[in-house]
Specification:
By secondary structure, this protein is α/β, with parallel strands linked by helices. It contains 13 helices and 15 strands.
Amino acid sequence: MINFIRSTKCAASFLTGLPDAPLPWESEDFLRPVLQDDLLLQTDPEELCEDSCASTGVSPGAESHDALQRRAQAAEERARSSEEALTRAMDDLHKLKLLAQGLVLNAGSGKSGNLGSVAELREDEDEAYFGSYGHYGIHEEMLKDKVRTESYRDFMYRNPDAFRDKVVLDVGCGTGILSMFAARAGAKQVIAVDQSEIIYQAMDIVRSNQLEDKITLIKGRIEDIQLPVQTVDIIISEWMGYFLLFESMLDSVLYARDLYLADGGSVYPDLCNISLAAVGDAQKHQEHIAFWDDVYGFNMGCMKKAVVPEAVVEVVKDDTLISEPAVIQTFDCNRVCLSDLEFASEFSLKITASTECTAIVGYFDIFFEKGCGNKVMFSTGPQVTKTHWKQTVFLLERPVSVQAGEELRGKIIVRKNKKDPRSLWVTFDLGDGKQTYSLQ
């Protein structure tokens, strides 16, 4: 009866109007509990009734319908309170799990045992992020990005010795393209992990290419699942976001590295860096910033305070660069700690043209080098073939006059948004002004 009430959510009036037989909950369909560990199913109603009748001196048959309904409501209230207590206990258990993981990782020899804010997100809190990768369009865009996809392919196919008879973990496998590259390159076993719904298409793709004997696909976050092996020899992942660190997927790769990577193993790509350059593009500045000074005859200049802090992801024309690029940060993915992903760096841009600096552009370079006889790299900068990452543009509210040959000096601070750890805050201290931009 309890399972019937919970599954149908029927009103009390429905129950009181039932015939003597047959009763609807006598079907085998209602033998399976609707709620796991349902406390009402662990209670004997007859025993409750006997206890109540003994205390009141009323026989079961003589008890009024209203009294029975009151007792049923009281039992339901106790069950609801118990369910709330169970929910709180599950939250506490989740926090305890994170604490235990942190203690285990910190006990490792020389590895970064820090758990980042992404690892601390519950699955429901991260649903929007993984949901966005359940749509096919984004995977089509990434696969058609030849710079990206062919670089991964070339790294694996040109370095088969690095993969021969190795166990490989693919973090965030998407359609499974990197896993299949690894299998074709000679890997003994590939474990592909992804939380988004695209994993089901990846399973079909792997079967369609007769690689199911080498590739095992697992749905879930790498932080929440347990691999069928204790260690892996190689971790591959295409984790990079806009400005390299947007989406904070590197956090998950480092989590996997610290938990599963065997001694002597490697994460690929193994090296990456972030570069900045000065931009002088008066037309683009007019379109995005100066535009608000006169909108159909109205002054909307106050909008600049809202528009400027939003970093713009777009393709920057090579001929608008007015400085030599400068690398501001380099990461070794086999050594970097989570704390290193939030950083401050001073920079100096050597100006190549006398004009006005209207923006700073950021991009990244990726390297496959460790243990590779044939090294591979690619860039997402404005000077080379464009990628789906484009470039990240930080527009200045007021352009800065610069002269060829001089140094434009500044400081950049990159940190995670604590309220949304997959997004970034990027602060520039340039000359007399300081501006914080968001990437979200």
